[in-house]
Fold this sequence. Notes:
The protein is mainly beta.
Amino acid sequence: RLLEVTYFNKSREFTQEFKLGQTKSNYNWVVGLYYLHEDLSQNQGVQQFLDFDQFFGPGAGDLANNGNDITAFIPYVGQTRNRQLTNAYAAYGQAGYHLTDKLEVIVGGRFTKEKRSFAYNDTAQYQAGGMDNFGPPQTVIDTTRRLNNQAFNYRVGLNFTPVTDVLLYGSIASGFKSGDFNGGFLSNVPEIAAAQVDPVPPEKVTTFEAGFKSRFLDRKVTFNVSVYYNDYSDLQMFALISKQVGSSVQIVNTLASADKARSYGADIELDIKPIRNLTLGAQVGLLRSKLVKYTGANPELFVGRPLVFAPDTSAFLTADYRIPMGDNALSFQFNAAYKSTQKLLSVADPYLEEQPDYWLMGARVGLQIRNLELSGYVRNL
């Protein structure tokens, strides 16, 4: 019995939205109201090193035996209970107006207000008196944290259609990601748990995008390109921080905020129908990202690094061939996805530094018999 964990999670949600809109030949608009109530709760137990005495002798794992180095592996039973309540409200609107037959301007906005609370209780029992005997539950932490946030976000864009089946566009928009808390299991050291349970503020982004969408050769070719730049503030991430515990300093992994980060790149999409019933598709993403400013502990470990799970290059390729058979059809599909090397942590670590680049491939065969389709597929060939 090395590590046993029981996960219990419960989620209840109520959401309601009202929208009103209108579309005419030279303009369109929509306004709306949104509400969300969410109740998330966890009741999770953990047991560690319960068979410790079988390997190191009776009583070796007792908490009282703390003069022995091996008691870093004291048998331990913990119970974590937390509950997060969220109430979110929003009002939004967007309108598009054709200045000319070919040029449309789009303006939109959204006001969001959120109230969140996070109640966290953690207890621990340590072995005392030999195997399977534990002392009384000790409260590690029992606290409630709160977040009240609000934000106004906007979008301004232009759509230009010089000819049929060609669209040029550009936009500036801002975004908002809720402030958040660490959930799940936190440290069983009170000072560290108190630092981990602190919330992080909302993440904000301003994004600039431009591109074009096109179809030509009798709509047998679709070619789309977009370029973008994202400017982040208070980027939410996991970070290692230093925490004073008694006379020693311990390194803690916790949710934190980076002051500034940025990313930019391009998305390219090409679909071709070279012959009847055959469609070939390719999507390619090019991305560069960087953590620009971090004022937390040890900023030199973070600043200048790429963002996590942000590969420089990604691609998705498909080939789809369909054979009509009267009212029925037989289809064959092959797909391949590629991601280049990705960083796994915000900070350098020789053991968890990165995920090497990889391909994933799959295939699918489908038989359509009028309104019924039977299919078989293989993933990760």
